[in-house]
Design brief:
transport, 70% helix, transmembrane helix
Length: 446
């Protein structure tokens, strides 16, 4: 078969055998390869990694940041007047609206990662961003809670492919102990956007334009944030990098190094498109269930705090509406800094589990402070610990699970399976704080 374009002019030592098919996938037999890392030096590799960092991480962070903002802004709208306007205080309507997002989100994450490799990251993510931005925009015009719930379902369908697709794209560019800090920088940069959610939502809720219902400030939270998301979708083809084999923004030499350096690490396998049944066969490994459960546990608390912390601050701790919106931001901002430091140490020490366990203990301590400390200041301090422990363990668990998958051909399916289980945690997190348990929400806290 023909050799990959422009690859043979960069031969490796004793020239391992190269096989390629029509899908641009190739395998390299490195059984008899020399000890050298390839026909490049460390300085050249570091320069390439910096170039990849600036092309892949920033825009994905913006995309996922908008995704987090658009799925969690419902809590800000709720305390801005949407609860009364749509009668969300009746029964479990608010919980149902939250939960239905995850019904479609859970089901479509894995199929999305099977599609992204075939259509390409730019085309697929562009479609998804415009789709979920349109759903958020539509929420600004709903007249009843049923319409809101339906739009939340479609929002989950479009957002389902963002996180697993982004993680798959990142893992296709970096080695095992290059991933934790990049997963965390990506996730925490996105979380930084969400950290300003309360401040942004408060400012938007002050807008009163139009007549009748459209003068309500909570509607403009959805309208403005949805419009910004749609606009961002049109920039995807210009700013988002593709998978290594489609990276036209690299020259031949850089593309060669980018693909080969990963190939050596994983025993000669490269990323490729595989038949559906063969891809799904990777899920039969029982160990994947452990990684999925680990992420489920972290995600349940992440979503519970994201959806209910403004409500708890307002109803339980007795802060005013303005303070409740503004005080949701500081715990997330401190989490970004601490999580990046933790991830850097994890990569530096080449250890994962001590950091995951420590962060889990910190989150438990924070929740206990929120539940049992009497002073509002002490309970508010508990939110800092709770948010840090749960949020830091989300990218930490993802990088841990992804690192255990030696064959890169399985990574897309496994990462999607883990994120699907994380969305099951979203279903748990959106239902544990029940209205009848207010104001302390003891069952939900436990």
């Amino acid at each position: 078969m023909a050799s990959p374009p422009n690859e043979n002019k960069y031969e490796l030592g004793n020239t391992p055998a190269v096989k390629e098919d029509s899908q641009t996938a190739y395998h390299i037999d490195i059984t008899n390869a020399p000890d050298t890392i390839g026909d490049w030096d460390e300085a050249e590799e570091r320069k390439l990694i910096r170039k990849i960092d600036f092309r892949i991480i920033p825009f994905l962070s913006v995309v996922y940041g908008l995704s987090l903002l658009d799925r969690s802004n419902i809590s800000a709208a709720y305390i801005a007047g949407m609860d009364e306007a749509l009668d969300l205080t009746v029964g479990a309507r608010y919980n149902i609206a939250l939960m239905m997002f995850f019904a479609t989100y859970t089901l479509l994450e894995l199929p999305s990662n099977l599609i992204i490799r075939r259509l390409g990251a730019r085309n697929w993510i562009c479609f998804l961003i415009i789709g979920f931005g349109s759903m958020v925009l539509g929420m600004g015009f709903v007249k009843d809670w049923a319409s809101l719930t339906v739009l939340r379902m479609f929002l989950g369908a479009f957002e389902a492919g963002i996180l697993p697709g982004a993680l798959f794209l990142i893992s296709s560019w970096y080695k095992t102990f290059e991933t934790a800090k990049r997963f965390t920088i990506f996730y925490m940069s996105a979380l930084l956007t969400n950290g300003f959610n309360g401040i942004i939502a408060y400012a938007l809720s002050l807008i009163h334009v139009g007549d009748g219902a459209y003068k309500e400030g909570w509607r403009w939270i959805f309208i403005i944030e949805g419009a910004v998301t749609i606009a961002c979708g049109f920039f995807v083809p210009f700013f988002l990098g593709e998978f290594p084999e489609k990276s036209i923004w690299l020259n031949d030499r850089e593309r060669h190094i980018a693909k080969r350096r990963l190939t050596f690490e994983v025993g000669g396998h490269s990323y490729e498109k595989e038949p559906l049944l063969k891809s799904l066969r990777a899920l039969l490994d029982w160990k994947i269930a452990f990684y999925c459960f680990q992420l489920y546990v972290a995600a349940a608390s992440v979503y519970a705090l994201a959806y209910f912390m403004p409500v708890i601050l307002l109803k339980d701790l007795g802060f005013s509406y303005t303070k409740a919106q503004l005080l949701t931001s500081p715990p997330y901002l401190s989490t970004v800094i601490l999580s990046i430091i933790s991830a850097w140490l994890s990569d530096r020490t080449k250890l994962r589990w001590p950091f995951l366990c420590t962060q889990a203990v910190i989150s438990i301590l924070g929740l206990l402070l929120m539940l049992y400390v009497q002073s509002p200041a002490g309970r508010y301090f508990g939110t800092f610990l709770g948010v840090f422990g749960t949020q830091a363990n989300t990218p930490g668990s993802l990088s841990y699970g992804s690192n255990q998958i030696g064959d890169p051909r399985k990574k897309g399916v496994v990462v999607a399976a883990m994120v699907s289980c994380a969305s099951l945690g979203g279903i748990t997190g959106s239902t544990v704080f029940r209205r009848q348990d207010a104001p302390r929400y003891i069952p939900g806290m436990w």
